[in-house]
Amino acid sequence: MRTKKWLGILAAWLGLGAGLSAGTLGKVVPIGGHASDLALDEARGVLYVANYTANRIEVIGLADLARRTSMPVAAQPGSLAVSPDGRYLLVTHYSNFLPPATAFNGLTLIRLETGARQTFALPSPPLGVVFTSDNRALVATSREFLRYEPSTGAMTLLETIQELTARTLPAPPANIPPQIIAASLAVSRDGERAYGLTDTFRFRYDRQTQVLTILGYISDPPQGPRVVSVSRDGSYYTAGWGLFDRRGTLMAQFPDPAGLLHVGSHAIDSDRGLVYAQVPSEAGEAPVLMVADSDNLTVRERFRLPENLTGKSVLSANGAHMYSISASGIMALPAGDWERQRRLTVSAEQVFFQSSFCDRRASTQEVFLADGAGGQLDFRVTGATAGVSVSPASGVTPAGLRIHVSPGAFADRNGTVEVWLDISSTQAANVPQRLRVLVNLRAPDQRGTVIPVPGKLVDLLADPVRNRVYVLRQDKNQVLVYDGSDYHLMATLRTGNTPTQMALTFDRRHLLVGNDNSQIANVYDLETLRAAEPVRFPAGHYPRSLAASARAILAASRTSGPKHTIDRVDLFTRTAAELPTLGVWENDIHLNTVLTAAANGSSIMAAQADGYLLLYDATADTFTISRRDSETLAGAYAASGYGWFVVDNLLLNSSLVPVSSFGKTGGTTSGFAVFDQAGFLTTAATAASPGVIQRLDLGSGSGYAPTRMTEAPVLGTPGAPFTRTLGVLASRSALISLTTSGFTALSWDFDAFTVPPSISQVVNAADFRAPLAPGGLMAVFGSRLSPTNAASSEMPLPRALGESCLLVNGAAVPMLFASPGQINAQMPFEASGNVTLVLYTPGGVSGTYHTQLSPTAPSVFMSGTAGPLTGLPTVVRAANGQLVTAANPIRRGDTVVAYLTGMGRTWPVVESGAPAPYHPLAEVVETPVVTLGGFELPVAYAGLTPGLVGVNQINVRVPSYAPTGMSVPLVIQQGGAATSLPVRVIE
Amino acid sequence: MRPPVNKRNMGSRIWIAVLMSCPAVFAQGWEAGVAAGAAVNPSSQVTGPAGKASAGLAMAPAFGVYLGQDVTARLGGEIRYTFRPGDLRLSSGKAKVTFGGESHLVHYDLLVYGAARQAPIRTFFAIGAGARLTRGTGQEASYQPLMQHALLTRTRHVQPVASLGAGLKMSFGTGRTLRVEFRDYVSPFPVKVIAPAGGAKIHGWLHDITPLIGLGWTF
Predict the structure, then answer these.
(1) Which among A887, A935, A960 has CB closest to B140?
(2) Contact between residue A829 and residue A909 where contact means Cβ atoms under 8 Å apart
(3) Which chain B residues have a beta carbon less than 8 Å from that of A961?
């Protein structure tokens, strides 16, 4: 019997650990009533659940999650708490019935050691109870806060409050305890601080000082779920959909909360720095448990729940297990072990394909699907479209998911096509992330190098004194800091929730970040790249846009009140305050307002989506201009240090009067970068089109040299119509634009290279003479062949290099090296006879160059060097591995290896651009004849050099009768072609 | 096509020929000894398109053994072997390059004495001929400094050598002799080992001036 019991317990926990229900996380334990509160008694291995409607306390065993017993209590147990010493269970009764029914509002004290009970009546309905570390209870009622001493039964009044609206019973149908009982309380694990949430205020009770602090609030939507969770030391807590610090500042909130009081829950795991939460969004969704970071609520993972959580959650002492009130009763979740649950993980967030005008061949990349538990999960991938396919589209993890892109399917499109792949699993408990596939298709005239960065990138700021660029990644609440010299990621800074815009302080020492779901602005020291104390904003103010002048730092804040405002930041005290007025105008701005400061700190412009413009004058320290010249404003915005401002395509003078408009080149403006008296503007028709960048003369207002970009800059959305996506590096070596796939680096002279290339000569790359053969390496000489020098060691060789590509008979060929005057490439094995060569560069397309191929054209590389000697034939003595020269002569009996190109086709066939195989060796079809001073040398091997592209080698042995001399002709003959070298031969 | 004759054994053939023609083999009053000293080689000039350079062998110790017999009171003969471990060297201006090398000399000399056999001190003049083997022993590399003038090569060259010299023999103790002498070994320049570069030419003969001290035993 005992064995059976333990087997049952084991089975139950195995089930819990595995998530139990297929495709969801957590085990539901129905209690036959509506639970209103729960308390964990790990010393006794039980969970007490207040069954509000059944008037009993359910005692659930933690080991097997089975109901051990039920303790009948007085009517409507609304909340309960276990004393830290484990001696008492205190239950409050919220039985606020209207006559003629009998109301009972009171307490039941249960001595857990003996089971003895005492019941006390209270003058007003009790809303919640917690025990503090001194084993005394804090009882909140609708009129007062009480301290209750269970050992003596003494009750003392702590504070009287303005009467809360205590809902009466009977309640409307389907109302459950969180909708009836208007408060929730929780205490830190150390029992030193208790926090509570009601409909109109939050409160904090400090046990040591015995001070109760009440913070009134107005919230829309309501602060649901009606749950409070407190960190281990009480330094922060979650209440409803918000995360607050000890002072009550909203550090972060779950975006777009539905505000339902009776749906959802959360629990803070301080040790792991996590919050486990179900906070339904306004959009509505199936029950999902989020695993979020406890500093800014960045969601790491989402698990499907078998049903909604509906109230308080508690964590076991080791954080491994979470127990929550749920629709059926309670739910047990293996929270601390979430990473090892059956969750489908994807190795990448996005996959970037780039298909140049040179190389439209299909390509494949692989991502890996795995089970977090290390097991097998079924998966299915949907969302593939024409040109983007996945293989396998379904299967079992672990698996490599090959994403195959056929650029030809996108016809003549240029820019970046975005395809979202949905990955699902019927067995996984989590909600797998979507995979973003980006296919960039590029024409010769499109400029810029794309650096792929996953995520939603919403703002870009180039540091004017450090050669860096700051990119705001909104979906992960991060500032990404990139080095401007090589674009490597220098640092990742954590922001508040939903960061919206960045600003530099006037002294350029600090970076400020505004957040749409945090009532703080983050501050970072740019020398150390570390977070500093944030700026706290007034309650209800979310700083969405910031700008710093020489005199003031201003923030355009979304507020939870009736109007949105401009606040002034005091960086010294790290606080902000709402400006009473904006000069002579009301402080009432549009929700979508952006601020930008002139580089010289003289002013800050505020551009509003409803067309209003404001100008803060730092000298006057007030707003001096407010005007409206259009019904709407959106797109790019910028301010120069010369008294010019730009919004969308409008150039405004220092009075914010439009003086000219730039051509949008058929698109929407996205970014504007100011450079002295000039500027750069980016536009795009859609996110999938190629963007356009043009230079602008701010003096004349004219734009020139519009140039297509590799992909479109990030465009505004209805929720965020203004965009800042373009910056100039401090080194002025490049422009950086936020674009569809990440960011794009454009060279400073992006519009300068517009003259087409010209091919003057094509020779073999070995001895630079005319004979060429299939598969051989060739050197193309001419002018403007490439805007930059570029070499590749990538295998197989790329078909485009340094923004140039070479076509032989219309097909791009593998390239090794590109420079303005020379390109080295491989003649395809498939080519023969008379062939045409055409070169594509960003400057245009060359004229057609004709040349004749021979089936074989052996040419020894004249690229050897020895000391100061260069141009030596690459003929090597095997004995010492050194080049044959007069000082290292060939000896009778030597084995000599000659490296050359142009020996034609091989068997087995090797694909053009691919390295020659080691096994089997690719031997030339046409065997060469090698003679030394007229004596034929036995050829041990003639074929491609393994591991190299287009390089042949011939191994010969020099017989003992070979003639000697200072200059003996070594002749290689193959087919009708021959090459000869004088070599020194000694005995 | 018939392969050409391998010349590798030419050196040993010459050695046998010299040995067979040696009168001392058939003589009486033998002396055997060892000698040591130094060899000095005045440089030879290399001229060519790249200019002038000097080539030769570096100064080095020399060691030898000899076996001889007085045929008459004032005439004798001896066969000698001398080992001369000297690097090959090439210089032009301040540039200088060396390459490991050594020489082996075998020759037969006629000795004409200034005093009779019983005299405690005997002066003598020597003249003879034989063969010289010059070998390059260094490591070859694709690049060698001054290779535009000549190439120091890891190979060997066997050439005839003439031996000219004079010295002093002193008897002491019982059957022991001490000799002080010098030799000038004259041979063609070993152009296989120090090969003139294309278009260049090495002028003159190779002289190895070698002062020696020897210790002999008569029997």
Answers:
(1) A887
(2) yes
(3) 3-4
Q: Sort A844 into a burial class: Cβ within 10 Å, 0-12 / 13-18 / 19+.
A: middle
What number is the average pLDDT over the span A570-594?
A: 97
CA A652 – CA A611 distance, rounded (Å): 13
Structure confidence at residue A794 (pLDDT): 77
Complex ipTM, two decimals? 0.82
Of the candidates A904, A942, A943, A937, the one whose C-alpha atom is nearest the C-alpha of residue A922 is A943
pLDDT greater than 50 at residue B127: yes
Report in angstroms the alpha-carbon separations of A969 from A855, A891, A979.
24, 14, 10
- Tens digits of per-residue pLDDT, A168-183? 899 999 999 999 999 9
Asked if residue A410 lies in contact with residue A417, where contact means CB atoms within 8 angstroms, the answer is yes
For chain A, what percent of residues have pLDDT higher than 90?
A: 82
Cα distances (Å, whole numbers) of residue A770 to A174, A780, A872: 90, 11, 19
pLDDT of A2 strictly over 50:
no
CA–chain centroid gap for A261, Å, is 32
pTM of the complete model: 0.72
pLDDT, average across residues A577-603: 97
Beta strands in A287-398 (DSSP E): 288-293, 299-304, 309-315, 322-326, 329-333, 344-346, 350-355, 363-371, 378-382, 388-391, 394-396
Measured between CA atoms, the residue of chain A closest to residue B193 is A986
Residue A841's pLDDT band, with cuts at 50, 70 and 90, is confident
Q: Which residues of B touch A880 (CB under 8 A)?
A: 139-141
Query: B143 and A889: CB-CB below 8 Å?
Result: no
Q: Which amino acid is at A174?
A: A
Q: Is the distance from CB of A831 to CB of A841 less than 8 angstroms?
A: no
Classify burial at A279, counting beta carbons within 10 Å of its beta carbon; exposed 0-12, middle 13-18, buried 19 or more: buried
How many Å apart are CA A541 and CA A93, to the nearest integer?
38
Residue A881 contacts B where some CB pair is shorter than 8 Å: no
A449: pLDDT confidence band, cut at 50, 70 and 90? confident
Alpha carbon of B45: minimum distance to chain A alpha carbons (Å): 19
Q: Give the nearest partner residue to A887 out of B6, B7, B141, using CB atoms.
A: B141
Position of tokens 């749906």? Answer: A263
- By C-alpha distance, which of A160, A124, A155 is closest to A142? A124
Total length of chain A = 987
| Mean confidence (pLDDT) of chain A | 92
Q: Which residues in chain A have Cβ-Cβ distances shorter than 8 Å to B144?
A: 887
User: What strands lie across the sheet with A645-647, from one edge to the other?
Assistant: A658-661, A650-652, A645-647, A635-639, A722-723
